[in-house]
Amino acid sequence: MASSVLFTGASSFTGLWFAEAMAERGLRVVAPLRGSADSYEGVRSRRVERLQACAEVVFDCPFATPRFLELVEAGTWDALAHHAADIDGYNGWSFDPVRAVQRNAAGADVVFAKMAERGAKAVVVTGTVFEAGSGGAPGSLAANPYGLSKTLTTETLRHFAAWSNLRFGRFVIANPFGPFEERRFGWYMFKTWLSGNVPVVQTPDYVRDNVPAPVIAAAYADYVEAMINEPATPAARRPSGYVMSQGAFAQLMAKEASHRLGRDLSVDFARQIEFSEPYLRVNDEFSFDLADIPRFWDQYVEYYSALHKSGDLN
Known about the structure:
Number of strands: 14
Order of helices and strands: EHEHEHEHHEHEEHEEHEEHEEEH
CATH architecture of the largest domain: 3-Layer(aba) Sandwich
Strand order of the largest sheet: 3-2-1-4-5-6
Number of helices: 10
CATH topology of the largest domain: Rossmann fold
Strand content: 15-25%
Shape: globular
Distance between the termini: 45 Å
Low-confidence stretches: none
Mean pLDDT: 95
CATH class of the largest domain: Alpha Beta
Largest sheet: 6 strands, parallel
Oligomer: single chain
Structural class: alpha/beta
């Protein structure tokens, strides 16, 4: 019988990729979503539609609510893969870390205890390179308020897991990119190129760790399987990808896209004078299967080309 994983946060960009990777491993993925079936729009709607092909989706089921607890009690589980978190406005300095921790931790102790009662062995919590002591900077403070909220959430959930006799696993995310991503760096670059203009990278000097979505998803699925099946708790996973300045990564992206679109694409760079975040934030576990990387770039460029043709890249 396939191992059963209760997976939160599946409508997010990485959540979809993680769910698909776990399903490909033969894991049964049950994905409770916060919203109703008709509440998702844009790229999130497309993710939810695709998610239903690889997971058992349960709508109107926010974490730790009575409906969520009923779902837990109705099943037999091997692990809770807790990927959901309060991230609204996460990239701003007005983000409230205390409120986020309260929202992230509310009811988690009850959920963990009930998961253990229903057979679960482990909980896997998603972290970020912007947490304190992460991102290649041991002993450092959190990089921003969001990183602080994730730091405090991790420690809270670690305690809840121990008190419920669940093994605790931590999976650290750097900068994932790929199809179905949010409207951030990749979206801006392709939107600008495909409209015939030249994108300008505003923070070319930051050194970041850009990880292709299928690479990080495969690492996540491997880790969840290890948390379920290995006798000892595996160490935290920190999968890494392209470690370079954002300027260099933009040039790499231009090269890969130029080759596939059949035309030369260029990039301009602003002079970076603001360093409100740490210069370096990266993971340290190189995770590429180099044979698969050309296929990923094919899919990535095809994804944005299709959005452009349909008029959805706006």
